């Protein structure tokens, strides 16, 4: 165990030696905050979520706008479509021959019935009918009909451009858009909470570093006092006015002070590394951090206005947005029980063109329509509405609980800040007494009135009082920081 401790101490001392060989660069608290916000991956992820929520909000708004779609298709068929059989097609193609033969036979019978038996006259009449080209014309018409009944659908090309516009979808679109807006606000609140948490972490690490740095300086002062006392006691031993036991006691204290100074050096380096890590700085570089010496008063709050605090707090904003999203969830679930109305319009083009017979070219037409859907029996949607209402009630309960916790948290932190102010004043008073006691002990020791043991006791009391002042100052700063966060105020001021 001792070997591991010594190894760790030597490693830190080596790091200090290496860092001492590099040029120093100092950062103030505001610079540390800026560096942390520029390099923190959690904050960057929160910013990306905000950008995503903004894009989703715009996408939800686009649902109100009409949609335009273009579709195209090509189909190849092995066979064409024939509406007439081969026998029917043959009969239609020779309809002129059949009709002309029937006319000639009917005319011959008619002439015989009216007493005209002259064969030459009958031949001339039939010949004159042939001049009318009944057979040829009707056969041609039959072939046109059979050609029209032969639909060449081996290559089909079709396309359409459709415009659809929702008119009423049960309030679903409006609820979705509001949900997207609340989600964007929710992500913004999450991002603000991450940002404030990062600032608080930077401030805590910064003040912790400076507190340990002051304690290191205090340990050096204490060590120097004991080193001076050790020299004085050794001189007194040579003058036979001190005992070997007095020298031993001082040396024991001096060794303890040396070890505490080494621990303080290690603590400063560890605090510096932690601050470098949170600020995104290279820990191997020789960075230092300058303390903000501005004197400020950190007083407790007299009037705690819960509504004002809740309106500023990011976590309450998140719960409020979550409650609003749950309320919109009720509207979305209820939309499944309401009618849906939409209008559509399109232009359709196809080849073959069948809008004027059957033609092997492109032809098109406009269409328009209204689509209405009325739910009649949807038990699942009824249960979905009930579930959404329970979710909304749950969010309301969480909001009420959070408000109560906020009141408790603010009162607690306000009390701790008040106590921290009292502790700091008491610590400063104790330090004044310890400094006066140390001054008198120094004078009494020089006059030979008190022993080295009494002087060391006064020095120890002074160091303890000084350390308590440092602890009280850092506690006061952090308590004020946490109170500002609990009240939803900016933690950067």
Number of helices: 13
Taken from the alpha-carbon principal axes, the silhouette is: rod-shaped
Strand content: 5-15%
Specify the CATH class of the largest domain.
Answer: Mainly Alpha
CATH-defined superfamily of the largest domain:
Outer membrane efflux proteins (OEP)
Helix proportion range: 55-70%
Rounded radius of gyration (Å)? 49 Å
- Low-confidence spans: 1-23
Would you tell me the structural class of the helices and strands?
Answer: alpha+beta
Biggest sheet features: 4 strands, antiparallel
What does this structure look like?
The chain is an alpha+beta fold. The protein has 2 domains: 2-39 and 169-339 and 374-486, Up-down Bundle (Outer membrane efflux proteins (OEP)), CATH 1.20.1600.10; 82-151, no CATH class. Helix content is 69%, strand content 12%. The protein contains 13 helices and 8 strands. A 4-stranded antiparallel sheet has the order 2-5-7-8, with no helix packed on it. The relative contact order is 0.12. Mean pLDDT is 84; it is low at 1-23.
């Amino acid at each position: 165990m001792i070997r591991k401790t010594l190894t760790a101490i030597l490693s830190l001392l080596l790091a200090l030696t290496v860092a001492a060989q590099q040029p120093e660069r100092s950062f103030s608290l505001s610079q540390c905050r800026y560096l942390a916000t520029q390099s923190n991956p959690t904050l960057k992820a929160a910013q990306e979520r905000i950008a995503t929520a903004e894009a989703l909000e715009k996408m939800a708004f686009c649902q109100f706008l009409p949609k335009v779609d273009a579709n195209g298709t090509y189909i190849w068929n092995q066979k064409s479509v024939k509406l007439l059989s081969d026998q029917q097609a043959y009969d239609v193609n020779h309809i002129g021959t059949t009709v002309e033969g029937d006319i000639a036979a009917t005319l011959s019978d008619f002439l015989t019935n009216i007493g005209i038996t002259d064969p030459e006259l009958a031949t001339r009449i039939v010949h004159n009918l042939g001049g009318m080209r009944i057979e040829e014309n009707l056969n041609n018409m039959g072939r046109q009909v059979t050609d029209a009944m032969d639909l060449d659908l081996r290559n089909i090309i079709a396309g359409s451009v459709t415009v659809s516009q929702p008119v009423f979808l049960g309030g679903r679109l409006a609820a979705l858009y509001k949900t997207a807006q609340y989600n964007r606000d929710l992500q913004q609140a999450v991002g603000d909470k991450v940002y404030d948490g990062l600032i608080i972490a930077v401030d805590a690490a910064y003040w912790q570093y400076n507190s340990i740095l002051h304690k290191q300086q205090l340990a050096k002062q204490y060590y120097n006092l004991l080193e001076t006392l050790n020299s004085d006691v050794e001189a007194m031993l040579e003058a036979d006015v001190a005992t070997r036991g007095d020298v031993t006691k001082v040396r024991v204290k001096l060794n303890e002070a040396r070890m505490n100074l080494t621990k303080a050096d290690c603590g400063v380096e560890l605090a510096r590394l932690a601050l470098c890590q949170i600020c995104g700085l290279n820990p191997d570089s020789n960075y230092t951090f300058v303390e903000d010496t501005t004197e400020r008063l950190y007083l407790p709050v007299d009037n705690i206005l819960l509504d004002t605090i809740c309106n500023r707090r990011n976590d309450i904003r998140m719960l409020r947005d979550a409650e609003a999203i749950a309320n919109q969830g009720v509207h979305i679930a209820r939309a499944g029980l309401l009618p849906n109305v939409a209008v559509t319009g399109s232009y359709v083009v196809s080849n073959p063109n069948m809008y004027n017979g059957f033609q092997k070219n492109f032809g098109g037409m406009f269409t328009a329509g209204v689509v209405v859907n009325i739910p009649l029996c949807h038990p699942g949607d009824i249960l979905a509405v009930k579930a959404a209402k329970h979710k909304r009630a749950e969010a309301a309960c969480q909001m009420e609980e959070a408000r109560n916790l906020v009141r408790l948290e603010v009162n607690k932190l306000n009390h701790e800040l008040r106590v921290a102010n009292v502790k700091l004043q008491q610590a400063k008073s104790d330090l004044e007494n310890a400094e006066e006691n140390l001054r008198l002990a120094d004078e009494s020791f020089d006059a030979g009135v008190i022993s080295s043991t009494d002087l060391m006791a006064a020095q120890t009391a002074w160091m303890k009082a000084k350390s308590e002042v440092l602890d009280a100052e850092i506690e006061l700063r952090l308590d004020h920081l946490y109170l500002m966060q609990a009240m939803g105020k900016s933690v950067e001021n």
